[in-house]
From TrEMBL:
Residues 526-708 form the PIK helical domain. Its EC number is 2.7.1.137. The lineage of its organism: Eukaryota, Metazoa, Chordata, Craniata, Vertebrata. It is an enzyme of class 2 (transferase). GO terms for molecular function: 1-phosphatidylinositol-3-kinase activity; 1-phosphatidylinositol-4-phosphate 3-kinase activity; ATP binding. GO terms for biological process: cell migration; phosphatidylinositol 3-kinase/protein kinase B signal transduction; phosphatidylinositol-mediated signaling; regulation of locomotion. Residues 507-521 have a biased composition (Low complexity). GO terms for cellular component: cytoplasm; phosphatidylinositol 3-kinase complex, class IA; phosphatidylinositol 3-kinase complex, class IB; plasma membrane. This is phosphatidylinositol 3-kinase. Belongs to the PI3/PI4-kinase family. Type III PI4K subfamily. Residues 779-1061 form the PI3K/PI4K catalytic domain. It comes from the Eukaryota. Pfam families: PI3_PI4_kinase (PF00454), PI3K_C2 (PF00792), PI3K_rbd (PF00794), PI3Ka (PF00613), PIK3CG_ABD (PF19710).
Length: 1076
């Protein structure tokens, strides 16, 4: 089949046998030149049908909205979707006839009429997404509609390969070693209680190195011995009693997160034996579109499009034949309603953008601001059209020129211009066509940080236009027009063994780069590394040191042996690949071709995951670069995908187009795993509701997932979204009822309970921050309004039935706060914990559940059996309790055995305190007052509320409230045996643990920095510029040796011990003033 597809690209004529989807199933054949377009194929079919009188309305065949062209391949129906596509590039099943011509069979079928089922489906999807995509779709070939159809392919492929049982019963397992404090327990048999419906419950002692199937074998034996019947016709699976969590697969029992939790908390283990047939059905019931092939945005190679040589007809022009420079004629802009504060003088800046980089800029002449401003002038760039890459954007900004003061000269205003409005356009569109002719785009108002900007570099990355056309500025401009479509060729020339890509002749064979190849690297003939490499920007010493011998040498001939050595040594430069790629001139086509050859021959598995994540960042918009990064992510486990999912969703904003390797990867991984899918839904939906610049992109990708996630997931999402909407309404009403900052009347709980009683909360729903936990009926008498500025709601719900009488399900619902910063910190704590766990360092972190469920709304998990340090101190002396060094010690002692504090309690306190000291120092977490630090009854200290990070400290009355690197107060040291400045074995253990934890993080410093840099895309106020990364680099002492870094952190501990009294003083002021 692939051979036929290749041959179709070199044939002069092609034959199509067309069957009409009518009562008679009439058939006709058409033969036309292979460089013709699909529209010309339709024209031939229409003319032939009219001649043979075999169709009632031949002219309607020309309209793709009325008639579709379909073919079958691998038992699937495909639609020939793009009328501009060259027929030689169609990946239809070709057959060589006896006459020697290639032929293909297609069906001409009336377009489907929207059914009632489809409308119901659209209503469901619009509700879950929080956005109506159908209202935005303007044309079948616009990017939105085109992407919706293209994403059908990865969804359908994933669903074909999906094992429904594994998908439904996916377990939550840990890849890290078993914690040291659980080692003794896993060496001996442990009791596990099995329950089967209401028929039988029994306990068995099992070695935790056994697999779940051993428990099922015990179950079958007990049932047989007892003479009890059970469902033997269907597979059985173990489910945690009272939780949506399964114990399944070929993993040791000690690997399951729930069993580890039970061991650590000395909790009995209860499992249900469930028939798989009784579980909620994950059938996909949605009606899907026919597939469209991945080559539908490809047209032909440059050789087949070039204007030189023998061509029968010109159908379209290769961009590489356009030798003129890019230019744009600025016509003007109009604004329906002038702003309250109008600028006096403005100008328009037009820029060529690649990612966030400005490659070339031209400014218009200044004009007085008015409702309509006209220019009618050409702006010319120093960028050749033939050098344009996919993803290159044309950006427009309207800028204010500040008025010149009496004693100022115009030059003094230089650089003080204020950006007012912006909008961008892809010069090469999603179908690889050059944008031509007149365009009118509706612009966005530029918001600064104080006004609530919500996306970093949106003015350079987003290609969305303002949907509020009635109120927004509309800019009109003209691009050069051609008589034919101008296309970026879909292939790069590949040289023979003696020629580099940049010097390959036009007659070279072609290599297709398509989205369908995201699973494998293309096969590319090894070229000479061309002299274009020597023309690149100079590479700094570190890069030169890591470059394989001869890599930048133009004399190196990479024959087969050379290519083998290149691949063997490629690991030497993979770590500095981001630095190398950042030095390139991406508007030089010859350089880009050489680099694409290089990337095509890289082995993705040689890339470190950190490097792959970095290559998905804002500095690397090139499709082949991002493709290589995504290929590396393919081998990640579901646990690792979850670890980086927060950042991966954000990096979708960097993609030039809606349809991308990354988008397809995320959709496939979400469809493969219910765990990944659950969080993918909420992370993406939060961006749909809160980020207008990328709303359409996030919505179309989320739709692609929802169409295949299965009915049970859809039903669950509907209940969750309904719960969030109801609670959001209650929270807003509560804030309006109690507008005071902190004071609440005695009636506040009763008013809240009344609102909740009258709300339409679902009877049960999975928690958005933890899909293993289901909340039941709300417990009204336990709900309250919390006394802080945003009036968060403390809510408790009935848990699911369980033999161990679990605590109520507790959540804090917040309205008015952006929880994405808290999500980032908690995610980073989990990454830190995984780094430490790999080194058998269990520091008892408490990464509680936290999720943003929309713009400035979200949920936080309530940690049970824990109180704030402030509450402990108040209980022993009111506000002066902040100075009681023994307050925490006495409280912990009251929770443990009589007479003295228990050894394990102190050990847990020392470890957790060390973990949070290191974590809060590295992340620069500020505002560490005693209401933001909590401790559990068994001594586990943890921090909450991460509103200030990366060294951004809080001030009170103009003074900095932070005087120490992290919180290590005299009362903490007292618990460790450090009363009155004495040292102790526990304090020494604390120091040793801190330095081990700190040095472990230093070895993963680039990962931590990369995770934070990718989150710049959120627009979080305290993570808004690349300069914010400096704090992390300094805190991790990247430039120092390990010995120097260890000494540095010991000095930070000594500083905290010395200045601990200042923290106590701050805590006293905090309690005295009631500051939150």
């Amino acid at each position: 089949m692939s051979a036929m597809f290749t041959q179709s690209r070199t044939e002069k004529n092609l034959k199509f046998i067309c069957q009409f989807h009518t009562s008679n199933w009439d058939t006709l054949s058409v033969i036309l030149p292979s460089q013709c377009s699909v529209h010309q194929l339709r024209l031939c079919i229409s003319m032939q049908a009219q001649e043979q009188n075999c169709h009632p309305d031949p002219l309607s065949i020309l309209d793709p909205e009325k008639y579709t062209l379909l073919y079958t391949k691998s038992e699937d129906w495909y639609e020939v979707y793009d009328d501009h596509q060259v027929i030689r590039t169609l990946d239809v099943p070709w057959t060589r006839e006896d006459t020697g011509i290639l032929s293909a069979q297609i069906v001409v079928k009336p377009a489907a009429v929207e059914s009632a089922e489809r409308k119901t489906q659209e209503q469901c999807l619009n509700y879950l997404i929080g956005y109506n995509l159908d209202n935005e779709a303007s044309d079948r070939l616009d990017e939105l509609t085109f992407t919706r159809r293209k994403l059908t392919s990865p969804r359908r492929q994933e669903l074909k390969n999906r094992n429904d049982k594994l998908y439904t019963t996916e377990p939550w397992i840990a890849s890290s070693p078993v914690p040291n404090d659980c080692q003794d327990q896993i060496k001996r048999n442990h009791p596990i209680t099995l329950h089967y419906m209401d028929k039988i419950s029994f306990s068995i002692d099992v070695n935790l190195s056994a697999c779940p199937k051993v428990l099922l074998q015990y179950f079958a034996k007990v049932m047989a011995d007892q003479g009890l019947e059970y469902d033997t016709d269907n597979d059985l699976v173990l489910k945690v009693f009272g939780r949506e969590e399964f114990i399944s697969g070929d993993y040791a029992l000690s690997s399951f997160l729930w069993l580890r939790h039970c061991l650590k908390t000395n909790q009995d283990i209860h499992l249900s034996v469930v028939s798989v047939s009784q579980l909620e059905e994950e059938t996909v019931k949605f009606v899907d579109w026919p597939l469209i092939e991945d080559s539908s945005n490809q047209f032909s190679s440059h050789h087949n499009l070039c204007l030189e040589g023998d061509h029968l007809d010109i159908v379209m022009i290769s961009l590489w034949d356009c030798h003129r420079y890019l230019r744009v004629k600025l016509l003007g802009f109009d604004i329906p309603k002038l702003p309250d504060k109008c600028p006096q003088t403005i100008y328009v800046k037009a820029s060529v953008l690649f990612g966030s980089k400005v490659l070339s800029s031209v400014c218009s002449s200044p004009k007085a601001f008015a409702e309509e401003v006209l220019w009618n002038e050409w702006l010319e760039f120093d960028v050749l059209l033939q050098d344009l890459q996919r993803g290159t954007k044309l950006g427009f900004t309207i800028n204010e020129i500040p008025p010149v003061g009496k004693d100022m000269v115009p030059e003094q205003n230089k650089g003080k211009e204020k950006l007012l409005y912006f909008v961008n356009l892809n010069i090469i569109d999603h179908r690889s066509l050059l944008t031509q002719g007149p365009n009118t785009l509706h612009m966005w108002s530029y918001l600064n940080v104080e006004e609530g900007a919500i996306t970093y570099q949106a003015d350079k990355l987003s290609t969305a236009t303002n949907p509020d056309k009635a109120e927004s500025v509309a800019i009109t401009f003209l691009l050069d027009s051609y008589s034919f479509p101008v296309v970026l060729p879909d292939s790069l020339p590949v040289s023979n063994n003696s020629e580099p890509p940049s010097s390959a002749t036009a007659q070279s064979k072609s290599r297709t780069i398509s989205l369908s190849q995201s699973q494998s690297s293309p096969t590319i003939a090894p070229p000479v590394i061309s002299s274009t490499f020597s023309h690149m920007n100079p590479v700094e010493a570190p890069l030169r040191n890591y470059t394989p011998p001869g890599f930048l040498s133009p004399e190196l001939n990479l024959n087969r042996d050379g290519l083998k050595r290149f691949r063997e040594e490629s690991i030497l430069y993979c770590s500095v690949l981001p630095h190398y790629l950042s030095t390139l001139d991406w508007m030089n086509r010859k350089i880009v071709q050489d680099v694409h050859w290089l990337l095509g021959n890289c082995n993705p598995e040689e890339l470190d995951v950190t490097v792959a994540l970095e290559l998905l960042g804002i500095d690397f918009p090139d499709m082949m670069v991002r493709r290589l990064a995504v290929q590396r992510l393919e081998s990640l486990s579901n646990d690792d995908v979850l670890k980086y999912l927060l950042q991966l969703v954000q990096t979708l904003k960097v993609e030039p187009y809606h349809d991308s390797f990354l988008a397809r990867y995320l959709v496939r991984r979400a469809l493969r795993s219910k765990r990944v899918g659950h969080f993918f839904f909420w992370y993406t939906r939060s961006e749909v509701t809160g980020c207008p610049y990328f709303r359409q992109r996030m919505a179309v990708i989320l739709e692609a997932y929802l169409l295949g996630c299965g009915q049970a997931m859809l039903d669950s999402f509907i209940q969750q979204v309904k719960a969030v909407e109801v609670l959001h309404k209650v929270a807003k009403t509560t804030k309006s009822l109690f507008p005071d900052k902190t004071d609440l009347p005695i009636s506040a709980p009763l008013r809240l309970q009344e609102l909740l009683r009258n709300s339409q909360l679902p009877h049960e729903f999975l928690l958005p921050f933890d899909p293993r936990v289901k909340a039941g009926r709300i417990l009204l008498d336990k709900c309250k309004v919390m006394a802080s500025k945003k009036k968060p709601l403390w809510l408790e719900f009935c848990p699911m039935p369980s033999p161990i009488t679990p605590a109520p399900v507790g959540i804090i619902f917040k309205e008015g706060d952006d929880l994405r910063q808290d999500m980032l910190v908690i995610q980073t704590l989990m990454v830190m914990d995984s780094i430490w766990q790999e080194r058998s360092l269990d520091l008892n972190l408490v990464p509680y559940g936290c999720i943003s469920t929309g713009h400035n709304i979200g949920m936080i998990e309530i940690v049970r059996n824990a109180v704030t340090i402030a509450a402990i101190q108040r209980s022993v002396g009111g506000t002066t309790g902040a100075f009681r060094n023994d307050a925490l010690y006495e409280w912990l002692r009251s929770k443990g055995p009589p007479e003295e504090i228990h050894h394990t309690t102190v050990e847990r306190f020392v470890k957790s305190c060390a973990g949070y000291c290191v974590a809060t120092y590295v992340l620069g977490i500020g505002d560490r007052h005693n209401d933001n630090i909590m401790v559990t009854n068994d001594g586990n200290l943890f921090h909450i509320d991460f509103g200030h990070i990366l060294g951004n400290t809080k001030h009170f009355l103009g003074m900095n409230r932070e005087h120490v690197p992290f919180v290590l107060t005299p009362d903490f040291l007292y618990v460790m045996g450090g009363a009155k400045g004495r040292s102790s074995l526990w304090i020494q253990a604390f120091r040793d643990t801190c330095t081990r934890a700190y040095l472990s993080l230093r070895s993963h410093s680039q990962l931590l920095i990369t995770l934070f840099s990718l989150m710049l895309l959120t627009g979080i106020p305290e993570l808004s510029t690349s300069e914010d990364m400096r704090y992390l680099r300094k805190a991790l002492q990247e430039e120092q040796s390990e010995t120097e870094a260890k000494e540095h952190f010991l000095q930070q501990i000594a500083e905290c011990e010395k200045m601990g009294w200042t923290v106590q003083a701050n805590w006293w002021i905090h309690m005295l003033a009631g500051i939150k």
